[in-house]
Design goal:
Elements lengths: L6 E7 L2 E7 L27 E7 L12 E7 L4 E10 L26 E11 L14 E2 L2 E2 L26
Antiparallel strand pairs: 1-2, 3-4, 5-6, 7-8
């Protein structure tokens, strides 16, 4: 008939987390009760696609050992907003008309003006992320001509990278 807030207490029982909610005492025979529960559970990043709750109704007065029990599986949907920021230093670059690429040279200045591209991948939350793959396609050839000479690739923050096959091909 009416709505009441339940008083629930968390505790550990046999190595599992238990939430104990008292529904009321005494309860009339044949009473029907509907309980809506909202649970906030953290640390589910590596739990997979679902989490299963074991719900059980126990009566202190019941002599029957077979108290009603049900398993409820709830899908886990992680949410995290990723943001990619990029910058080139210098932002613009013009090659002098007198400059020519020197094929086979091992001097850095014979391969062009240094341009550094910096990319930052940010997790704006609310969840944490793992196993993220970022693929950057860098145009290094224009037809048969070198457009950008890829010198090096560096990372910060414990990331793993696979290097481009054209990375520092002339060993400058």
């Amino acid at each position: 008939q009416g709505q009441e807030k339940l008083s629930c207490n968390p505790k550990k029982e046999n190595g599992t987390h238990v939430l104990l909610c008292e529904l009321g005492n005494p309860m009339k025979a044949g009473a029907q009760i509907t309980v809506d529960m909202e649970l906030s559970v953290s640390g589910l990043e590596d739990m997979g696609d679902a989490i299963t709750f074991h719900l059980q109704l126990r009566s202190k007065n019941s002599p029957s050992p077979s108290n009603a029990s049900v398993m409820v599986t709830v899908p886990v949907e992680a949410e995290a907003e990723m943001e990619l920021r990029g910058n080139s230093l210098p932002a613009t670059m013009v090659l002098p008309t007198s400059w020519h690429w020197v094929e086979g040279s091992r001097r850095l200045e014979d391969h062009g003006i240094k341009v550094e591209h910096v990319y930052e991948l940010h997790n704006k939350g609310p969840g944490t992320v793992s196993g993220v793959t970022l693929s950057l396609a860098v145009p290094h050839l224009l037809g048969d001509h070198v457009l950008l000479y890829l010198l090096e690739l560096g990372t910060e923050g414990g990331m793993n990278c696979s290097h481009h096959p054209a990375l520092n091909s002339a060993q400058v």
